[in-house]
């Protein structure tokens, strides 16, 4: 499926006209002129760090991600509808939630988190099978959210494989 451009250029003032748009665009990070998915992933890192650092358990964060996944379906649906485009690159709620899920499932530490961030961005951008299949075949807010969660699962598996082989250290 070819990504389309909206009939207009989304702006910060357009986001502020409806709170769901503001959330869908990751508090404005999805407006980045280059690599909005990468910029949109950063709030997920920040939120995961703040929540884990304030005492939330990894299981608690994972459960929160499940809740945010389901909240994200109508957020992404509404933002898509307002733009008139399916899975527009600036809609980054899915990246935020998926990155938080990855970080809930890997050890804490700068090196592991950098590897996790890189792995997630790779899988989300390249979309190897079956991620690409889901991206192409599942539409609406559920589809927007689903391909990123699958990319998150691939990232979690890769990070744990790298930890197991000693290619990265969890310490």
Task: Give the SSE map.
Elements (H helix, E strand, L loop, with lengths): L11 H5 L2 H6 L11 H18 L4 H26 L9 H12 L5 H17 L4 H7 L2 H26 L6
Helix pairs in contact: 3-5, 3-6, 4-5, 4-8, 5-6, 5-8, 6-8, 7-8
Describe this entry's structure for a reader.
- There is one protein chain.
- By secondary structure, this protein is mainly alpha-helical.
- The chain has one domain (12-165).
- Helices cover 68% and strands 0% of the residues.
- The protein has helices at 12-16, 19-24, 36-53, 58-83, 93-104, 110-126, 131-137, 140-165.
- It is globular and about 50 Å long.
- The protein starts with 11 loop residues before the first helix and ends in a 6-residue tail after the last helix.
- The mean pLDDT is 94.
């Amino acid at each position: 499926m070819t990504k389309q451009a909206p009939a207009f250029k989304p702006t910060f003032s357009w986001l502020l006209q409806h709170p769901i748009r503001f959330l869908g665009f990751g508090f404005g990070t999805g407006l980045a002129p280059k690599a909005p998915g990468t910029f949109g992933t950063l709030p997920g890192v920040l939120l995961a760090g703040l929540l884990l650092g304030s005492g939330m358990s990894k299981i608690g964060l994972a459960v929160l991600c499940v809740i945010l996944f389901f909240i994200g379906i109508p957020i992404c649906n509404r933002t898509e509808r307002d733009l008139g485009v399916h899975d527009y690159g600036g809609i980054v709620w899915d990246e935020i939630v998926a990155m938080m899920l990855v970080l809930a499932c890997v050890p804490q530490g700068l090196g592991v988190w950098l590897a996790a961030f890189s792995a997630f961005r790779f899988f989300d951008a390249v979309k190897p099978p079956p991620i690409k299949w889901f991206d192409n075949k599942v539409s609406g807010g559920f589809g927007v959210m689903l391909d990123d969660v699958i990319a998150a699962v691939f990232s979690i598996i890769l990070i744990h494989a790298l930890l197991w082989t000693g290619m990265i250290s969890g310490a």
